[in-house]
Design a protein that fits this description.
The chain has about 650 residues and is α+β, with helices and mostly antiparallel strands. About 20% of the residues lie in helices and about 30% in strands. It has four domains: about 5-35, no CATH class; about 50-370, TIM Barrel, CATH 3.20.20; about 390-395 and about 540-640, Jelly Rolls (Sandwich); about 415-520, Sandwich (Jelly Rolls). The strands form nine sheets. Strands 16, 29, 30, 31, 32, 33, 34, 35 and 36 form a nine-stranded antiparallel sheet that branches. Helix 9 packs parallel to helix 10 (about 360-370). The longest helix is centred in the N-terminal third of the chain and has 23 residues, at about 15-35. The radius of gyration is 28 Å and the shape is globular.
């Protein structure tokens, strides 16, 4: 057999052939690696999104944004891809998402971009599905989200002026942007990523307290490496005050008014027109009705907008869920704030659990005409299951749960939640706060409207009544000696829109009066019900069997057994009153019998085979079992006006 020498080693013909294959393979891999390097991708790209004429251009070709809002923080991470694939199959080409500051910096200087909050993973996923991205990093996002996404620890400063150039606020914004823009900037179009535009703040024209503020936010983005097209977003009234030089103005609405579009054209001649938020539905408030917006009305406006050569973004395309305590409150035109429900279904084209709706199918038909290729096939829907009712096995009273909270604060006067010395001195953001003091007489308890937002009142652990915005006085019966007065105050959600953001401190925000005396010498317990607390509770040995009559408020525990692969489901709690639902330690959100929402969404990926722990914090009553449904119940409906 013929042999040859390589580096002095004699090789057979077969060995030389094998070596040639190895070298060729290595060269191919090296070429592919070089070809896919970010700098090579950048070089291959022509030009990002531009607004230099009456139409957008992308890569120097005419481009129409067909967008939809889908928020990563409102969807279980396991379902991100499912929701975005369904978006793409509907004919949308652009994903828009807010970035919630209060989740990413829950304590001052402590940042979280992991797991459910992995913004970069979400951006990479969008890129892998060939979706462009409009990023809306705030710092204020509205979004029917607690305090519009601003972290509550900002309110520890009694002089805080949110959404202004007040030094305490701008310093905090700069610190946050240092982190979030560092994550986002590498995913811009110019770096080979999907981000084609970035929004400067959000709906500032409706706030407009500081003319230097929008230029500050714009510069904060530019100085940290944002190079893509800048946008602002305002409703018709905000357009006059919400813009900033160098950013394209866009409009938000639900019903199309040609005069509004005409005004947008007048303030921006020869610029592309875009509806940044076309409201596909609406949000719900506790004690109200479930808002619906007809599919026919929605699709009629979408068609008209597209006929006017405008770009559009559906807010929301998929709403998802306000898990935990994150839902906001509405106050515009009301005597007192009304808290928002846990579901953010929004009557959107893709439902809370990711189901197709009539709106979805109508949109898909309309958007299909704006594509040269057929749209992708519809991804399959997820199976759901109505599990057998779970019987409550044990209970733990509120008073016994205090052993698992942080050390209580002793204070002469009431202290609001945000100024409590907990969470590394970032205060308490969410949940309940228990204020206890000693009284020696009965009489009239007057909240002086200092309860934010709702307080259960107890005397020696016996329920007396509720204080809130409407009820500000309670009768306290006479009794012997010293008794303990307790006020369990719930933050029902901070206002997310309007001019009262600076006034959103929670808990007891001032004095409480008994007859003519201002109450003093409080012991204050923080009950924010974070995962660590819930886990400590669940593993404690203090639980009592249900044969022993529970006292309220209390935690109740049941076991949901899952055979096979876990499926999505909805928890129903008829016969219960008000509280919070946890599954395997995850806070699903609030339940409240006043509705409209009557079910709580349980994502299948948050369950596992075998026994799952369901824990309900309940304020006033229980029927001893937790029921499940395969479909949601959002209550009686009302058309959006």
């Amino acid at each position: 057999m013929e042999k040859s020498s390589v580096f002095g080693v004699r090789l057979s013909l077969k060995q030389r052939y094998f070596l040639l294959l190895c070298v060729t393979g290595a060269l191919i891999i090296a070429y592919q690696f070089t070809r896919n390097r970010p700098e090579e991708r950048r070089m291959s790209r022509v030009e990002g999104l531009r607004a230099d004429s009456s139409h957008f251009t992308l890569e120097r070709k005419p481009f129409r944004i067909l967008g939809g809002s889908v928020h990563y923080f409102r969807i279980p991470r396991a379902y991100w891809e499912d929701r975005l694939l369904k978006m793409k199959a509907c004919g949308l080409n652009t994903l828009t998402t807010y970035v919630p500051w209060n989740l990413h910096e829950p304590e001052q200087g402590v940042f979280d971009f992991e797991d459910q909050l992995d913004l970069e993973a979400y951006l990479r996923l969008a890129a892998s599905l060939d979706l462009w991205v409009i990023l809306r990093p705030g710092p204020y996002i509205c979004a029917e989200w607690d305090l519009g996404g601003l972290p509550s620890w900002l309110l520890r400063d009694r002089n805080m002026k949110l959404r202004t150039t007040y030094p305490g606020f701008t310093k905090a914004v700069n610190s946050f942007f240092d982190q979030v823009i560092k994550k986002a900037a590498p995913h811009q179009y110019s770096h080979g990523g999907p981000i084609i535009a970035v929004q400067v703040e959000n709906e500032y024209g409706s706030y407009a307290k500081d003319e230097e503020y929008m230029p500050f936010i714009k510069e904060a983005l530019l100085s940290r490496g944002i190079t893509e097209l800048l946008l602002t977003s305002d409703n018709k009234d905000g357009l006059k005050l919400g813009g900033v030089k160098g950013a394209l103005e866009t409009i938000n609405f639900q019903k199309l008014d040609p005069n509004e579009v005409k005004y947008l054209e007048e303030i921006q001649p020869q610029k592309p027109k875009m509806v940044m938020e076309y409201w596909s539905g609406w949000f719900d408030l506790w004690g109200g009705l479930h808002h619906v917006y007809s599919a026919e009305d929605m699709i009629s406006v979408v068609r008209d907008v597209l006929k006017m050569d405008m770009s559009i973004n559906l807010y929301m395309f998929h709403g998802g869920t306000n898990f935990g305590f994150m839902s906001g409150a509405f106050a515009v035109g009301l005597p007192a704030p009304k808290p928002m429900v846990t579901s953010y279904d929004y009557d959107a084209p893709l439902s809370e659990a990711g189901d197709y709706t009539t709106k979805y199918h109508l949109l898909r038909n309309v958007f299909s005409h704006y594509h040269t290729e057929p749209l992708p096939d519809l991804p399959s829907s997820h199976e759901r299951r109505a599990y057998q009712p779970a019987v409550v096995q044990k209970h733990l009273s509120l008073w016994d749960s205090l052993h698992f909270t942080d050390k209580p604060l002793k204070s002469e006067r009431p202290v609001n939640m945000e100024n409590l010395p907990v969470n590394r001195n970032s205060g308490q953001s969410y949940g309940y706060t228990l204020y206890e003091t000693t009284i020696t007489s009965g009489g009239t308890l007057n909240s002086k409207n200092n309860v934010r937002d709702r307080a259960l009142v107890f005397v020696d652990k016996h329920f007396v009544g509720v204080l809130d915005y409407e009820v500000q006085e309670l009768a306290i019966s006479e009794g012997k000696g010293r008794r303990t007065l307790g006020l369990l105050v719930e933050n029902c959600g901070r206002v997310n829109y309007g001019t009262t953001l600076d006034e959103q401190r929670k808990g007891l925000v001032g004095d409480i009066q008994l007859n003519t005396d201002l109450l003093r010498d409080f012991i204050i317990h923080s009950l924010d019900m974070k995962p660590g607390f819930v886990n400590r509770l669940e593993s404690s040995g203090r639980w009592m069997p249900m044969r022993q009559r529970p006292s309220f408020p209390a935690f109740f525990q049941a076991s949901l057994h899952v055979n096979g692969s876990p499926k999505d489901t909805f928890i129903k709690l008829p016969g219960w009153s008000k509280g919070v639902v946890f599954v395997n330690g995850k806070n699903l959100g609030r339940h409240w019998s006043i509705g409209p929402q009557q079910t709580v969404y349980v994502p299948g990926p948050w369950l596992h085979r075998g026994d799952n722990q369901v824990t309900v914090f309940e304020e006033q009553e229980t029927d001893g079992k937790i029921q499940f449904s395969s479909s949601p119940d959002y209550g009686m409906t009302v058309d959006v006006q």
